[in-house]
């Protein structure tokens, strides 16, 4: 698990600067810089605060494969929709998996 890398990548993906994130969670920008450079690891409360501030589930920061799985599940759902598969069980399972990933 590389929380430092995940914080940085997701922050950039969300087009949020280090300064903006620091302001959102009421810390000095050096704290964010330290988190992202692995000089300091955020505690559980800080991870929760950061996740809320950037609008992602906590697992997105703690699981290196979170977005890869989300992308694969979304592609699978699109493929099933495109093929016109009407198996409501398949769609229900995929939607359930997509929702579980966010928890």
Automatic annotation (TrEMBL):
The family database entries (InterPro entries) matched by this protein are listed as: Cro/C1-type_HTH (IPR001387), Lambda_DNA-bd_dom_sf (IPR010982)
PROSITE patterns on file: HTH_CROC1
| Transferase as UniProt keyword | no
| Keywords on record | DNA-binding
Q: Which domain of life is it from?
A: Bacteria
Family matches, as Pfam families: HTH_3
Positions of the HTH cro/C1-type domain: 7-61
* Protein name (database record): HTH cro/C1-type domain-containing protein
- State the species of origin: Clostridium gelidum
């Amino acid at each position: 698990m590389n929380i430092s890398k995940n914080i940085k990548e997701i922050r950039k993906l969300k087009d949020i600067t280090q300064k903006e994130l620091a302001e959102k969670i009421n810390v000095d920008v050096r704290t964010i810089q330290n988190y992202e450079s692995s000089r300091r690891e955020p505690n559980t409360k800080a991870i929760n605060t950061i996740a809320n501030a950037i609008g992602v589930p906590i697992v997105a920061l703690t699981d290196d494969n979170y977005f890869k799985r989300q992308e694969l599940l979304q592609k699978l759902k699109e493929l099933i929709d495109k093929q016109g598969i009407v198996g409501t069980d398949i769609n229900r399972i995929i939607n359930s998996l997509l929702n579980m990933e966010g928890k």
